[in-house]
Prior knowledge:
Layout: H1 4-16, H2 19-26, H3 30-44, E1 49-52, E2 55-58, H4 60-87, E3 93-98, H5 103-117, E4 122-127, H6 132-138, E5 143-149, E6 160-175, E7 198-200, H7 206-217, E8 226-227, H8 231-239, E9 244-248, E10 259-262, E11 270-278, H9 285-304
Parallel strand pairs: 3-4, 3-5, 7-8, 7-9
Antiparallel strand pairs: 1-2, 5-11, 6-9, 6-10, 6-11
Helix pairs in contact: 1-2, 1-3, 1-4, 2-3, 5-9
Amino acid sequence: MLDIxxxxxxxxxxxxxxxxxxxxSLELSAGAVSQQLAALRHDVGVDLLRPDGRTVALTEAxxxxxxxxxxxxxxMEEAECAVAVxxxxxxxxxxxxALPSTVAGIVAPALTALGVDHPQLAVTCLVTDQAQLRELTxxxxxxxxxxxxxxxxxxxxKGIAVSPLLDDPLLVVxxxxxxxxxxxxxxxxxRDLAALHLVVPPPTTDCGQAVLHACQQAGFTPTPRxxxxxxxxxxxxxxxxxxxxxxxxxxxxxxxxxxxxxxxxDHPIQRLLFAATRRTETTNPTTAAVIAALxxxxxQHRTTxxxxx
Length: 309
């Protein structure tokens, strides 16, 4: 009989690209993973992996087995969810992956509320920009608070359920009293930023791509003075008057001194914040509690930061 843990290791190696990377993810030694995969190869009687440059790839037999492993692992999770529903209680552990820009506005309020409503639930929060939905498919995390910029194609992996939370526009941020200053009341034309010193995220990021796309629609290609994905750095540069920033609304504390914010009037840049979890027929009470808390925090943030009519 096939060992479920070995099937999960095969899936992790296929996703990570190497035994070493998979071992780090699984918090095991590379030798232990190799030993288990060798045992799995012995169980099925055929090679499942082959060298591929500096990485490894699945053989045809490995691809076939992985397709079945995905269904087996999904069935195991479905069984765990069904038992959890019968128990009728929220569990004791969950892992949330969230973007850095969502921590202050949504994650912190949600985790605070969870601590009150479900004190037995300990949520581990991984703050990262990297491959969150892939971690969800591998079982490394239980819930993802992710983003999707509206001009980019949606690429939700198979077996993932997505729940929209909040439309989150990028705002123009300048030093208080600057030439483009406003207070969420006076909109700014994106084309007017062409002559200003800008701080933008790297073009390799979703946000950087969204800014570049919008600027090109507005008739110019930005030549930023500063490039950083660190929102704290972006706000510091804006506050000092050295640059104009484009920052998601949820990432800006309205009490931050020395800055002005304004919406974009001609080519708005919008991201959708969403909560995602593995798709199951039966709702897991624990992940449902986490998503409900995120949804409530997003709703409260939307109400508190609603732009003037």
